[in-house]
Amino acid sequence: MGRSAVVVGGGVGGLAVAIGLRRIGWGVTVLERASALQDAGAGISLAANGLRALDALGVGAAVRQASRGQYSGGTRTPRGGWLARLDGAALEKAVGTPIRGIRRSALHRLLRQALPAGTLLTGSEAAAVRQTGPGTVRVDCGDTALDADLVVAADGVGSRVRGLLFPDHPGPVYSGSTVLRAVTGEPVDLPTDFELTWGHGAEFGHIAFPDGRAEWHAVLSLPAGTRFDDPLAALRRRFHHWHDPIPALLDAVPAEAVLHHDVHELRTPLPSYTAGRIALLGDAAHAMTPHLGQGACQALEDAVTLAASLAAGPTVDAALVRYDAERRPRSQQVARAARQAGRLGQQLSRPWAVALRNTAMRLAPSRATVRTVLRHHDWVPPRLG
Questions:
Q1: Which DSSP symbol is given to 149?
Q2: Residue 206 has pLDDT above 80, yes or no
Q3: So what's the pLDDT on residue 38?
């Protein structure tokens, strides 16, 4: 009889690992507590490591077709001056692809389409997960109990499963940043594929999509729980003097389209990504700040690495030990780097510190910037079988 797994969470990481497990011959059930798939989020940038993981899962070509390469753009000051230029062609030469921008809803749809009907069960919440034998894990879901050889917890930054496995861990903490984002309703005239603009304690950026529409995001250093009665009015006040096309991007969405979330991270690293026959993946294992654009990419790396480890055997338990050994050091290092990038970027607020950073960025040669990017992007996935 074949192996079986229950995946808790139907986001990018959960769907990706389900695809990977099916490709190595496992039976998979994905439990998603939301009753309707709303495809929360706006846009996402996929670097070479994430795209290579998607290639290993067999969906890379479809994702490339639905996304737009980021060849032009970079990082700017609020007045529009350039701090660093994005050289997408150089990055493509180095790792085979530029960073690509895609709507999160499109990525979710492509991942779901790669799974057989009935694999993803919506409105299904895992109330409890427990080891019932040396090689069996049980997931209680409503009136149903699912037994499996493996449970993969991909249930996000607020993971209930992580809390059950590591009750003494402090869990996620507020990063100090809150993010508002939206996708324009119509195509917009943008001079670049991707931009970030850094002010004092604030960032504004955009990602262009193939259809001409774009995602924009505003990251602000504010107390946790801060909300605005009129988010767009608040953002127009905050960014009214920033360079074009920021005002036009804010004008291109209705107020009800703006999403607002505080950014939480696992600042205290987990001691392990596994416990018995349960594995943690994605934000459940290493929730990080968005300042490197690596959250989804690291979840995709997790998914491919876990599936490849299980395919290599010789036992599920040995595979989980190998998964933890391979993924924990790298993903936790990326999380630390993302936190540092935020402190030196969006969260920097003192005028003298901002001026010093801006000068250093302007003086840095482009090849040094590419080398910095490659530390995170140049990852080669293991073979699935």
A1: S
A2: yes
A3: 59
Q: What pLDDT, in 10s, does the model give residues 65-106?
A: 999 999 999 999 999 999 999 889 988 998 999 999 999 999
Q: In this predicted model, what pLDDT tens digit does every residue of 12-31 receive, in sequence order?
A: 999 999 999 999 999 999 99
Chain-centre distance for alpha carbon 63: 15
With contact defined as beta carbons under 8 Å apart, do 342 and 289 qualify? yes
pTM for this model (two decimals)? 0.95
Return d(Cα 309, Cα 299) in angstroms, integer: 15
- Delineate the domains of the chain, giving CATH numbers in brackets: 4-70+94-173+266-347+361-377 (3.50.50.60), 174-264 (3.30.9.30)
- Determine contact, residues 25/143, Cβ cutoff 8 Å: no
In angstroms, the CA 288 to CA 291 distance is 9
Q: What is d(CA 211, CA 228) in angstroms, rounded to the nearest whole number?
A: 30
Q: Are 208 and 192 in contact (CB under 8 A)?
A: yes
How many angstroms separate the CA atoms of 191 and 208, rounded?
10
Q: What is the mean pLDDT of the chain?
A: 94
- Count, residues in the chain: 385
Q: Are 71 and 98 in contact (CB under 8 A)?
A: yes
Q: How far apart are CA 145 and CA 133, in angstroms?
A: 14
Q: How crowded is the C-beta side of 283, counted as CA atoms within 13 Å?
A: 22
Look at residue 40 in the predicted model and tell me its pLDDT.
57
**Phi-psi label, residue 71: left if phi above 0, alpha if psi -120 to 50, beta otherwise:** alpha
3-state SS class at 267: coil
What Rg value do the Cα atoms of the chain yield, rounded?
Answer: 21
| Beta bridge mates, 122 | 32
The gap from C-alpha 269 to its chain's centroid, in whole angstroms, comes to 17
Cα–Cα distance for residue pair 24/35, rounded to 1 Å: 29
